[in-house]
Amino acid sequence: MPKAKGKTRRHKYSYNLNRKRLYRSARRRAAPRIACSHIRHAWDPSKSVAQNLAEMGLSEDPNKALPIPKKLVSGVEAESSGQQSGKKIVRKPYVVNEMEYEASLPEKKSNTLSRDLIDYVRYMIQNHGENYKEMARDEKNYYQDTPKQIKRKINVYKNFYPEEYKEFMASLKPEKMDVQ
Questions:
Q1: What is the residue-wise DSSP string for 54-105?
Q2: Quick one: which of 27, 42, 130, 160 is 20 to 30 A from 112 by CA?
Q3: Is 54 found in the same domain as 131?
């Protein structure tokens, strides 16, 4: 059965279609997406973005908030007369205070290894000790890691869980003594 006539032909790019205008209008209709929860709770939808940020003590444009002073030829900074007179009143200072407090908190370590990798490393150490060539030939080495790759995985385990590694090595020593 023959194919339909127009299906296989190449579609031509329409140069006359203004895609920027279509994209801009779609963006204009969308409400602003606010990532920070403190700003989201203090946001007033009846006001503009600039008004909302000014009330919170935040700046819409970082170049206007901290302008780079223009230097004269002699090296003296030029003074701008209009910048100091237009200070805005901060009506919601708690937003900035909460954001500063949140930023000052220490970051939690999110370094974790998968349970499978931990079990794999423990199995290799338990059965082969420090012999990485034997580990590479082991039947549980499903991913065919080289001795260097296995050594690297063991070192990662040592670095991420030093206390657990020490306890594991201490538990292995009595087993080795019983065998001899």
A1: HHHT--S-HHHHSPPPPB-TTSPBPP-SHHHHTPPP-S-HHHHHHHHHHHHS
A2: 130
A3: no
